[in-house]
Amino acid sequence: MELIRSYFPELTPGQLGQLEKLGKGLAGWNEKINLVSRKETSMLEERHLLHSMAIARFITFPPGAGIVDVGTGGGLPGLPLAILFPECRFTLVDSIGKKIRVVSDLVRQTGLTNVTPLQERAEKMKDSYDFVVSRAVTAFPIFYEWTANLLKPAGPSPKPPGGIIYLKGGELGEELAGFRGRVRIEPIRQWFSEPFFETKYVVYLPTGETGT
């Protein structure tokens, strides 16, 4: 966890220990279920854990916030964020049962008490949350259609405002054309210097811009 420690020196020994258990657990499960590219197993810390944690450099979730990770797969970005924000409540959602079983096991291995794994399709969910997070599940306009209904209505001057926080890579101009003036796009390279992050971004659509 030296790379993570270098970027997040404020982490406690307990949090670093949880992240280490998460990395080992993901690597172990990846040998049985293809959660991430097998070629990237040796780069889990950089390309999966640290990438997920870029959201924590973009925003500090307020204590008590409810966050849903839609299309969580093996628990990314939700599990690293749950370790970073123990006073927040995380629901990790995927429609594939075997992936939610992996998430449940990783929750057990890391000792997290603020995570609820859920097998469901986002379109069928009835609960609402302060934030929706995800990591490149599909094109942003499609993801928006799936998840905008999951956000709580915008309150008076929320601090910080809720919304959709999406990790995405590549050329985003055409994909986000319909959201011009509504989304904020932050390059991850401003926080992390590894070449992998040169074309990676945090896309943020505030609740007040979603129509909720």
What does the model show?
32% of the residues lie in helices and 18% in strands. The chain is an alpha/beta fold and 212 residues long. It has one domain (2-209): Vaccinia Virus protein VP39 (Rossmann fold). Strands 3-2-1-4-5-7-6 form a seven-stranded mixed beta sheet, with helices on both faces. Helix 2 packs antiparallel against helix 4. The chain is globular and about 40 Å long. The relative contact order is 0.15. The mean pLDDT is 92.
CATH architecture, by name, is 3-Layer(aba) Sandwich
What is the CA-atom radius of gyration, in angstroms? 16 Å
Report helical residue fraction. Answer: 25-40%
Shape: globular
Helical segment count: 6
Task: Tell me the strand order in the biggest sheet.
Answer: 3-2-1-4-5-7-6
Largest sheet: 7 strands, mixed
* Integer count of domains: 1
CATH superfamily: Vaccinia Virus protein VP39
Question: Could you name the ranges where pLDDT drops below 50 across 5 or more consecutive residues?
Answer: none
Q: What is the strand tally?
A: 7
- Summing up helix and strand content along with how strands pair, one would put the structural category as alpha/beta
**Mean pLDDT over all positions:** 92
CATH topology: Rossmann fold
What is the subunit organization of this protein? single chain
The N- to C-terminal Cα distance equals 39 Å
The portion of residues forming beta strands comes to: 15-25%
Compressed to H and E, one letter per element, the order equals: HHHEHEHEEHEEE
> Which class in CATH terms?
Alpha Beta
